Amino acid sequence: MAAAASSTDRPGALEITRKLAEICGAPFARFAGPADEVAGRTARWVAVPGGPHAAAEVLRLAAAHDLTVVPRGAGTKIDWGAAPAHVDIMLDTGRLAGVWHEPQGSSVAEIGAGTPLRAVQATLERTGRRLPVDAPSPGATLGGVLAADEAGPLRHRHGSPCAQLVGVRYLDADGELVSVGLPGTAQFGQAAPSARRGGSPAAGPGGGPAPGGASAVLGGAEVPGLDVARLLCGSQGGLGVLVSATMRVQAVPAGRVWVSRPVWTPLEVHDLVRAVLAARLDPAAVELDLPVPVALPRRRIPASHPSVAGRPDHPAVTGRPARPAAAGSLVVLLEGGPADVAERADRLTALLGPEAVVNHAAPEWWGRYPFAPGDTALRIEVPINDLHAAVYALRDAAGTPVPVRGSAGIGAVHAALPGSLPPERVASILAAVRGVLLARQGRCVVVSAPAPVRRAVDLWGELPTLPRLRNAKAHLDPHHRLAPGRLPGGL
């Protein structure tokens, strides 16, 4: 904070503040405070523009004075990933909010980047629709969800939030407002910057799927620049500032049930997930929760005790050991018409056995991360047939069970290491796990971590698409003004 404070005393700092106030309004431009940090790096100014044109003016001001800009939504994931090299202006998108109503029954809706996801769902629900996105971060904005490509349980059927994207409006590093989308949507119009500049970056941020060029084919229509727009997903604001997104929406399912079953080992989870997927039950989500087991004191119960009287199968009577408490839960979400959901739930419980239970509400842990603030949070992605190997490798490397939770049906889970672990210990665990995953076409990414760990370890691991990501940065932000250092490779 001392460094940030001294930076505001430099010649011209008050002039920058005055200009930001002219652009955003006096209440919406200020020197940054202690809470205005990006992964531990404190900003110099905070600007909260009231609309796309004001946001563009902020970026033009930054370009004119060679200042860096980092976008911020609700700040729920502001400590994810690498710390930027430095932060001059934190561009708060809180006033770039709203849900623009499409005609009744439309399959798309335009949503302001600063709109909280909960507000989006509440607005759409009034017309019987929803956005098939359920990011776990409470209070997250749509722009923040897209910038982190954050997905929840519904990713099993619907893919990541980026998969629901059909159009965007965003600002490039020079403050130019760029619109990309399907014909007929509010954003369709201009070509994306890479098309104007004669190039086509072909790498997803953070090593995601590489788009094939400056246009995409979606629903039979070629969409100029949409691949470039999708590069914004997961870019942490390092390639552009999202203003609004046109997203696919769908009818709210009339019926929903959660079918849960206790599980004891990762290998058992592997067998159950394969069986569920092979049964063609069309699950909306297949989630796994493997918490750290809590050891409880055990005491011997005599066979004559009233609690076991009349129970010839009890260990106190048979002398055989009791089955240990379940290590976790596998839960399958079924959605659709009530009769169809009931029929599929019956088939699923028959498949999972007598321990399966049908519930009409999600378990308490559903759609929540297994890590807490201060933990080292990991994201593991691996083909589903090798998920159990990844969990075992993590346990072996850590020397103890590690909480794991996430989408077992697609092999994408999160895990938590205690924040008290020294950086060198975290580094050794990462090396061991990544060694196992490398042979299985999987990867382990550090989502967030205490500052000493973040500085000491490789957050992303091997990243074959880094050269193409570097090319994308060169096209979209050649002067490295947008969140410099947030992307892999220090981009």
Strand order of the largest sheet: 19-16-18-17-21-22-20-23
Which stretches of 5+ consecutive residues score pLDDT under 50? 1-6, 183-224, 294-301, 305-318
Report the count of strand segments: 23
Q: Mind describing the biggest β-sheet?
A: 8 strands, antiparallel
Q: DSSP strand (E) fraction?
A: 15-25%
Shape: globular
Alpha carbon gyration radius: 25 Å
Question: How widely separated are the two ends?
Answer: 24 Å
- Helical content (DSSP H or I, runs of 4+): 25-40%
Search tags:
single chain; 491 residues; alpha+beta; eight-stranded antiparallel β-sheet; five-stranded antiparallel β-sheet; globular; disordered N terminus
Describe this structure in words.
The protein is of the alpha+beta class and 491 residues long. It contains 15 helices and 23 strands. The chain has an 8-stranded antiparallel β-sheet with strand order 19-16-18-17-21-22-20-23. It has a 5-stranded antiparallel β-sheet with strand order 7-8-14-10-11. Helix 2 (13-24) runs antiparallel to helix 3, helix 9 packs antiparallel against helix 12 and helix 12 runs antiparallel to helix 13. The two termini are 24 Å apart.
